[in-house]
């Protein structure tokens, strides 16, 4: 105890900043702490790359870090200490497994089981390959939808979203969903994501706020019930099919739901997951992957519309590698040789990270970073965009220049996992890093290559692409991409 006291006397918390500007913004816009990035960026430029902010008097402060070396020290050198998540509050507790899912579980055995299940069973390259027919189907549906609008100016985001949701639904439930099912899932997803990221009244004395705001609470319960009504029949169909496949049809031989049916929790007497828990994990699978990938795809295509010379350079690469082949779709194997395509996708992920902050981390014991004390239990927020745009790491960081990823060949210049050095943190770094990054990059490369080979992407005459940002769940284009699509090949 004496040693602990001495330690605390010797080291201090990072400098405190006034919560007033942040609180004012949160109350005026009814938003969450994730949606105040521009204000935090201003604070950073004033107070430096690490500071503390206490939003509620006498509560634990949150600590903000916006520097690559500090993030590396925290997430890699002190990886275990920084790998937990803050305590979970309503309504998210209600919406997840025994209170948790992969992204919200504290660092420990439940998190390990759930995360390993996802990475080893569904996101393993051999499993990702199994879904190739699903990717081709989702792409064909997207191309058909875009062809049918190619005489107009197309606002492409909804088409992208529908396609990526269809694809992740295939991976989740092993089934091609129809348009109505996709729409229903998307609108419930949107509602539940909003409750997660908007100003959260239920975080404050839930027993009282659930009563005071009972209508809103009931809406959340109702949305989850509707989601269960859609997901559970598909999960049960997988259970039946696994138990007796004879004579029954299945679009895909494996899916994420199959792996959930096989999970047993050793610390809870080896029980399997309940229906609610499986619904919650399927919801997480879809919500973690859809908006992020859709946003990244829209930003990438916007940059290619804005920078026609980059689009031509990409097309030359695509044609030189697939030139003689008249196949309808560029296959996954062909993507491996497309170094410029990879550079375009990486540069887009660097310049336009879908999330400007990682999910909140929390520390499991007192730790010193950069001479400051980070006390056990505080919430730590890492500023992704500030790191990705750091002028000390990147020349002219706000320019869109895929060539910066060409030097030395793909993968040598930048270690996307940040293990050696952090230069960008779009997917986080360390133990809690996004487990879906390989899948997300594959989807982006696959869609971008095929979309560029299929159409000339041009901006609307007299309406140049506007790269202004707006914060929703991810940082989206304030003015969604509207493009003129001219088919390159006769159908
Ligand atoms: C461009 C697309 C994506 C981006 C930019 C992205 C980004 C991120 C970030 C920044 C984190 C937080 C890391 C941290 O707190 O340290 C995260 C976590 C996570 N992501 Fe992704 N992600 C993407 C796609 C996906 C996909 C496709 C999936 C799965 C299908 C996925 C599943 C998850 C999960 C389960 C977590 C929680 C990990 C944990 O807490 O252990 N993500 N992602």
UniProtKB/TrEMBL annotation:
Cellular compartments annotated: Membrane
Keywords for the protein's UniProt record, in alphabetical order: Heme, Iron, Membrane, Metal-binding, Monooxygenase, Oxidoreductase, Signal, Transmembrane, Transmembrane helix
Name of the protein described by the UniProt record: Cytochrome P450 89A9
GO molecular function: heme binding; iron ion binding; oxidoreductase activity, acting on paired donors, with incorporation or reduction of molecular oxygen, NAD(P)H as one donor, and incorporation of one atom of oxygen
SUPFAM superfamilies found in the cross-reference section: Cytochrome P450 (SSF48264)
Membrane topology of this protein: Single-pass membrane protein
Residues that bind heme: 434
Protein species of origin: Platanthera zijinensis
Pfam families: p450
Family label: Belongs to the cytochrome P450 family.
PANTHER family: CYTOCHROME P450 89A2-RELATED (PTHR24298:SF800), FLAVONOID 3'-MONOOXYGENASE-RELATED (PTHR24298)
Any single Gene Ontology cellular-component annotation: membrane
Required cofactor names: heme
Main location class: membrane
Gene: CYP89A9
InterPro entries: Cyt_P450 (IPR001128), Cyt_P450_CS (IPR017972), Cyt_P450_E_grp-I (IPR002401), Cyt_P450_sf (IPR036396), Plant_metabolite_P450s (IPR051103)
């Amino acid at each position: 105890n004496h040693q602990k006291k001495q330690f605390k006397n010797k080291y201090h918390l990072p400098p405190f900043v006034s919560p007033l500007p942040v609180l004012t913004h949160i109350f005026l816009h009814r938003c969450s702490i994730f949606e105040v990035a521009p204000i935090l960026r201003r604070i950073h430029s004033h107070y430096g790359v690490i500071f503390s902010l206490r939003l509620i008097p006498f509560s634990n402060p949150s600590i903000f870090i916006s520097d690559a070396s500090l993030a590396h020290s925290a997430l890699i050198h002190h990886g275990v200490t920084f790998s937990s998540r803050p305590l979970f509050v309503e309504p998210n507790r209600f919406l997840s497994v025994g209170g948790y899912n992969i992204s919200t579980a504290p660092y420990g055995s439940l998190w390990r089981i759930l995360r390993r299940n996802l990475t080893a069973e569904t996101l393993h390259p051999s499993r990702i390959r199994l879904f190739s027919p699903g990717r081709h189907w989702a792409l064909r549906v997207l191309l058909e939808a875009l062809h049918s609008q190619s005489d107009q100016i197309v606002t492409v985001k909804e088409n992208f979203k529908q396609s990526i949701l269809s694809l992740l639904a295939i991976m989740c439930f092993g089934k091609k969903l129809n348009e109505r099912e996709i729409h229903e899932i998307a609108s419930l997803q949107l509602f539940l994501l909003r409750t997660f990221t908007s100003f959260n009244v239920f975080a404050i004395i839930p027993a009282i706020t659930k009563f005071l705001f009972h209508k809103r609470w009931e809406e959340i319960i109702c949305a989850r019930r509707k989601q269960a009504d859609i997901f559970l029949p598909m999960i049960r169909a997988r259970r039946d099919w696994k138990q007796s496949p004879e004579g029954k049809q299945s679009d895909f031989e494996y899916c994420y739901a199959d792996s959930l049916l096989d999970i047993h929790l050793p610390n809870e007497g080896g029980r399997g997951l309940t229906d609610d828990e499986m619904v919650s994990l399927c919801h997480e699978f879809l919500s973690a992957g859809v908006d992020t990938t859709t946003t990244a795809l829209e930003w990438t295509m916007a940059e290619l519309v804005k920078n026609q010379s980059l689009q031509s350079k990409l097309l030359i690469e695509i044609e030189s590698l697939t030139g003689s082949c008249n196949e309808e779709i560029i296959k996954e194997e062909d993507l491996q040789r497309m170094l410029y395509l990879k550079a375009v996708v990486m540069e887009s992920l660097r310049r336009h990270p879908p999330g400007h902050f990682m999910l909140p981390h929390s520390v499991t014991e007192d730790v010193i970073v950069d001479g400051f004390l980070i006390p056990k239990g505080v919430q730590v927020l890492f500023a992704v965009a500030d790191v990705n745009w750091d002028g000390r790491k990147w020349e002219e960081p706000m320019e869109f220049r895929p060539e910066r990823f060409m030097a030395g060949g793909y993968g040598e210049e930048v270690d996307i996992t940040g293990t050696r050095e952090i230069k960008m943190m779009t997917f986080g770094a360390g133990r809690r890093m996004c487990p879906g990054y390989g899948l997300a990059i594959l989807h982006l490369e696959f869609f971008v290559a095929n979309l560029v080979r299929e159409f000339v992407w041009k901006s609307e005459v007299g309406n140049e692409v506007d790269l202004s940002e707006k914060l929703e769940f991810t940082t989206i284009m304030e003015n969604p991409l509207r493009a003129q699509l001219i088919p390159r090949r006769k159908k």
